[in-house]
Design brief:
Number of strands of chain B: 0
CATH superfamily of the largest domain in chain A: P-loop containing nucleotide triphosphate hydrolases
Number of strands of chain A: 14
Distance between the termini of chain B: 60 Å
Helix content of chain A: 25-40%
Largest sheet of chain A: 6 strands, mixed
CATH topology of the largest domain in chain A: Rossmann fold
Distance between the termini of chain A: 52 Å
Number of helices of chain A: 10
Order of helices and strands of chain A: EEEHEEEHHHEHEHEEHEHEEHEH
Shape of chain A: elongated
Order of helices and strands of chain B: HHHHHHHHHH
Radius of gyration of chain B: 23 Å
Shape of chain B: globular
Strand content of chain B: under 5%
Number of domains of chain A: 2
Oligomer: heterodimer
Strand order of the largest sheet of chain A: 6-7-8-3-9-10
CATH class of the largest domain in chain A: Alpha Beta
Number of domains of chain B: 2
Strand content of chain A: 25-35%
Largest sheet of chain B: none
Largest interface: A-B, 25 and 25 residues
């Protein structure tokens, strides 16, 4: 069982929003999707789910194209947080729609979760706060029992307690390897604790597909202080600058080798300390154009 | 599968169907009451005229065989059924639901037409019953199949045709206000088309009789409806929701729509006009108005940019 995205492209008003996106996604995986604002994360989701017609490429579930075999789409759940049809319905009415589409929809669990999160079943969706709406969307995603679940900014507007509950629930859902999540979020700390893999979108394209365990084995985040004010060539060549504070440099080296280590130590730095590498560091290293060495001149 | 989709669409639109049914019933009941109360002062002995025995659409003073309100309900239904799903983002759900778009389109259309036919039957039954029950003492209410059947078929054909126009327009137009203006304008323009075409068809070389004209009009409405339904199905298959909120949901239709608009509107306003100067003015106004209407977001955008540059 797998979902394959193959060379998916979408232009809106002659502007390329996503281009040649390809990746595989298997149940049991929690994939984070990160990228700067407006890079095309939501467009990718909407194109994946056939709301937007793709210019090129296809989505295959178990080897079958979702456009040619629409029934396969029921394995894929995506509820747009910004534009959905729920506004005029009360919470108790909503499952009537979802159980007609998702055969495994768990109505009892839906009701139980409403009670657990103290959501009034008689409330109209549009009268809920932003955070509560996000919570209802999440409850629907979990109770749909679809194999592949897309969550677009799921933690937006949720308080810390609810976030923790949701994160725990997501992890529990994938424990039996029957479900997979694709989560976009600007909360990189939250994603860091959840994701196995992270896809990085930049300039309409998928520029990185990080397996976090693997990247943590090869990448290092270092804090360095040198006697000399000039930046050593080895750093310019192999590292990405994350932060500068006086003469303290914080850098990420994605492929840290013994040779690089040797070269750095040969420079006799005043300080060479390894720091824990976070998703935020990878994000900054790849996507923050304005923190490069060129700005230090 | 079919059953599930039927239930989904019914679940989504049942309130709207109920409201349309209530509107049709209420309007027709009021119409009957007004007709009968106006009849009491007139003093005739027949509610229905003798022309009900002819194979032609019945038109009388007190009795309406197929109410204009029913036609209006079909018109409104076409508009709302398509526009609501777009505006309320139900299309997003339908497109991700695992039902093929073709199946969604035809199921929705079938269910809508069946419900509207049901509304017509119930409304006509209630309307005729009211005529019979409320007719004043000494006044007869005599019906005949030729006039009734022709009126029903003609009424249903016109209603279905108008439903198809609104259904199609609501499929391709992504702005509710602009949709209402466009469809209302087009519907009103059809009266001019009728006024222009009737003398052409009843005079030489066609010389159609009243009855022939009625059946020709029925045929034209039904063929137009079928063409619009099939064309709508093709467009629905390729509908991409990023255009939601734009005037045209199918951008490639912009130029054809512009061309048809200019020819159609210029033709209607210039018909029978002997002054070529007036025709040229009509043409120019249509060209400018059509361009501004269809390309107005870009015009507005450029105006905004121009202002920003000059203010800066």
């Amino acid at each position: 069982m797998t979902l394959q995205v193959k060379a998916l492209s979408k232009a809106i008003n002659h502007q390329q929003i996503i281009e040649d996106i390809s990746f595989d996604w298997a149940p049991g995986e929690i994939i984070g999707l990160v990228g700067r604002n407006g890079v095309g994360k939501t467009t990718l989701f909407r194109t994946l789910t056939n709301q937007y017609v793709a210019e090129q490429g296809q989505v295959l579930i178990d080897g079958q194209s979702t456009t040619r075999h629409p029934l396969q789409q029921r394995q894929l759940f995506f509820l747009d947080g910004q534009y959905n049809f729920l506004s005029n319905y009360r919470l108790w009415e909503i499952p009537e729609f979802f159980r007609l589409v998702y055969a495994q929809f768990d109505q009892q669990r839906y009701q139980d979760l409403l009670v657990q999160f103290e959501l009034d079943r008689n409330s109209q969706y549009r009268r809920l706060s932003k955070g509560m709406r996000a919570l209802v969307n999440l409850i629907l995603a979990l109770t749909s029992n679809a194999t592949y679940i897309i969550l677009d900014e799921p933690f937006d507007g949720l308080d810390v307690i609810v976030r923790e509950n949701i994160a725990t629930m997501v992890i529990d859902e994938v424990a039996d390897q029957q479900k997979g999540f694709l989560i976009s979020s600007h909360d990189l700390n939250e994603l860091d604790g959840l994701s196995d893999r992270v896809l990085l979108l930049k300039d309409s394209r998928l520029v990185q597909d990080y397996h976090l365990e693997e990247i943590r084995e090869t990448a290092k985040k270092l804090q360095l202080v040198f006697n000399d004010k000039t930046i050593p060539a080895v750093l310019k060549e192999h590292s990405q600058l994350i932060r500068v504070s006086g003469r303290v440099l914080v850098v990420v080296i994605t492929h840290y080798t013994p040779e690089i280590d040797q070269q750095l130590r040969a420079l006799n730095p005043v300080l060479l300390e390894e720091l824990p590498l976070t998703l935020e560091d990878l994000f900054r290293a790849n996507l923050a154009h304005d923190t490069g060495y060129q700005l230090m001149k | 599968m079919h059953n599930q989709l039927d239930r989904l669409i019914w679940r989504r639109h049942r309130r709207l169907f109920l409201a349309l049914g209530a509107l049709a019933l209420f309007a027709n009941v009021v119409m009957v009451i007004i007709a009968l109360s106006s009849r009491q002062t007139a003093g005739a002995h027949q509610l229905v005229g003798a022309s009900i025995h002819h194979w032609a659409t019945y038109k009388g003073d007190y009795f309406t065989a197929y109410s204009y309100w029913l036609i209006f309900v079909y018109w409104l239904a076409g508009l709302l059924l398509m526009n609501q799903d777009l505006k309320d983002n139900f299309n997003q759900f339908l497109f991700t639901s695992g039902f093929s778009r073709q199946r969604v389109y035809w199921t929705k259309l079938r269910q809508s037409l069946v419900v509207l036919l049901g509304i017509s039957i119930v409304t006509i039954a209630v309307q005729y019953s009211l005529y019979w029950l409320m007719k004043p003492h000494g006044v007869s209410f005599t019906l005949a199949w030729p006039g009734l059947l022709t009126s029903w078929i003609s009424g249903l054909a016109v209603a279905t045709g108008l439903f198809a126009i609104c259904w199609f327009a609501a499929l391709i137009i992504g702005q509710t206000g602009a949709l209402i203006v466009t469809v209302t304008g087009f519907t009103l323009s059809l009266m001019s088309v009728g006024a222009i075409s009737q003398p052409i068809l009843t005079n030489r070389p066609f010389s159609l009789s009243g009855s022939q004209l009625t059946w020709l009009v029925i045929g034209v409405w039904l063929i137009a409806a079928i063409i619009l339904f099939v064309w709508g199905a093709v467009l629905y298959q390729h509908l991409s929701l990023e255009h939601n909120g734009e005037y045209l949901m199918v951008p490639r239709l912009k130029r054809p729509v512009y061309l048809v608009f200019v020819i159609y509107v210029t033709g209607i306003f210039s018909w029978g006009d002997t002054s070529w100067m007036a025709d040229v003015v009509t043409f120019l106004i249509t060209v400018i108005f059509g361009y501004a209407w269809l390309w107005r977001p870009r015009i507005g955008e450029r105006l905004h940019q121009w202002r920003a540059r000059h203010d800066g």
